Amino acid sequence: MECTVRWVEGRTFLAETGSGHLVAMDGAPEAGGRNLAPRPMELLLAGAGGCTAFDIVMILEKGRQAVRGCEVRLEAERAPSDPKVFTRIRFHYVVRGRGLDADRVERAVKLSAEKYCSASIMLGKTAELEHTWEIVEEA
């Protein structure tokens, strides 16, 4: 895996991923940024959310569950001084579908948290992770 990050101007940076995609990042105005794009740490958190959501959907689909939606709401706390690593991250999953089995949803969350989601497992080296979930039945 590779990525190249280039400084554009001010505190704006453009990342080109190894798969050829572009992602912009910017700083807060008080840090010299123009608030044009997400902060790098926001992208790190979003990446963990995307990684675990991917796992949940894949695990439930392989288990023949009628999953129709998966949303992960993340709340993170950071250390007060540098390096301001994440110290606590709460993952709350809202899984939508028809007749979803609660035990299978719980299993999918545990498998993602403990085995498959590289991003969140890596963040768990500095942060306390909490995982909660709910099922929303769809007609």
Automatic annotation (TrEMBL):
Signal peptide bounds: none
Domain of life according to the entry: Bacteria
InterPro entries given in the database record: KH_dom-like_a/b, OsmC/Ohr_fam, OsmC/Ohrsf
Gene3D superfamilies linked: 2.20.25.10, 3.30.300.20
Pfam families assigned to the protein according to its UniProt record, in alphabetical order: OsmC (PF02566)
The name this protein goes by in its record: Uncharacterized OsmC-related protein
Organism: Tepidiphilus thermophilus
Taxonomic lineage: Bacteria, Pseudomonadati, Pseudomonadota, Hydrogenophilia, Hydrogenophilales
